[in-house]
Amino acid sequence: MNYIALPTLACLLVATAVTKAQVRVSDPKQTVERNVEYRVNSRVDQGINRGLDKVEQGIGNIFKKKEKKASGQQPADDTSQQTPGGPANQQPADTPMGEAADTGTPRSLKAYSRFDFVPGEKVVALEDFGQDAVGDYPAKWNTNASGEVVTLDGRSEKWLAVTQNGLLYPEFLAALPENFTLEMDMVITPGLDNNFLGTALNFVDGKAAKNLLTADRKNTVQLNIHPGGGYTSVTAWDADETIRVTNENYEKEWLSGEKPAARLSVWRQKTRLRVYLNEVKIWDIPRAFDPTVTYRLVLERNFFTTENQAWYIGNLRVAVGAPDTRSKLITEGKFSTTGILFDVNSDKIRPESYGVLKEIGQVLKENAGIRVKIVGHTDSDGNDASNLALSKRRATSVKTALATEFGVDVNRLDTDGKGESQPVGPNTTPEGKANNRRVEFLKL
């Protein structure tokens, strides 16, 4: 989390031409932390050099400036399981604009066939920056860097563009429980020139830290993901700042022509940390978290250069509770989930819903004697009749997916939709709306 002083820059640039083995031989007394830092700077730089041409070619069109045009009106229906931030607004002239956040081919459920991420039961925080004006820094965040709320052309969501190196955190997310899931979308501007650490999620000691905007590593778990070089690491420090856990790996970079945007999914179960980048599980560490520490989330941007570069984050969603699908459906007779996601105003299931559907499908196949009714629900945005129809179509889509993808007999599945008529939370907050947009499974 500490930034590297400028006098060390020359040494770091030389280190990028040295292999990991050479670094260790040349200075055997180097600490584990410094070795990790050198390995980042060397191998990540090599990965970027190999991939920057295709990165710039594939993602460059996203931020290509266009003629100004009138903003579109969003449909009145329930928007989606991931609430967009309202109509697409024109960005300031000095902010890169884009075609869309993801220009790749739409992913199918089968593309996520190994994705076993299951979101928590109850959404406790959902940040879509809908309450913030384009051009402002979001009111519910704090930072020692700079940034602004923007939109990307072709998408209705608002994004926070982090335009300077530093730390930032959501003030509304005061404490993370021992069981939670965190999801967020990310985009990086083209021409990434970065042999530092890139982007990071830091889970810091919320009770001990006097200032969350200082690079204090005490009782911290850091998840680092370099967007261009494929480098990722997890490091955990104890209260005395000694390293308790350190792991590094190299995955296919998410900043590529095929997938210029990335969805990050983090799953904590007590001490265990699981991390997914798009459909791939990149980390599963049994003892990353200290169960005695109350963690808070602090994001970090640490790019080599800052000019005309931004880290865009959006659709931050935190949910709590570890779903017990089998017990709730078989024993209690009802299972409700907010983890089945749909495209905006559509009954098309998003591929990141695969983990939830797979779990439900397994329970149904293992208990072949039961029948269930699938019931769709929406929030109260838009027209009542449209929301009712949408909820019914979404329930039918779930039925079809369970039958075609997981082999569940369609004769065991009934469907219905209730629209906005049965809310479980207030329709006045993003979190309440997210909990109302759900799919229920009722044992018949």
UniProtKB/TrEMBL annotation:
Keyword Hydrolase: no
Entries under CDD domains matching the protein: OmpA_C-like
Subcellular location: Cell outer membrane
Protein name: OmpA family protein
GO cellular component assignments: cell outer membrane
Listed InterPro entries: Bact_OuterMem_StrucFunc, OMP_bac, OmpA-like, OmpA-like_sf
The organism of origin for this protein: Spirosoma sordidisoli
Keywords, comma-separated and alphabetical: Cell outer membrane, Membrane, Signal
OmpA-like domain span: 329-444
UniProt region (Disordered), positions on chain: 65-105, 412-436
Record's signal peptide: 1-21
Biased composition (Polar residues): 71-93
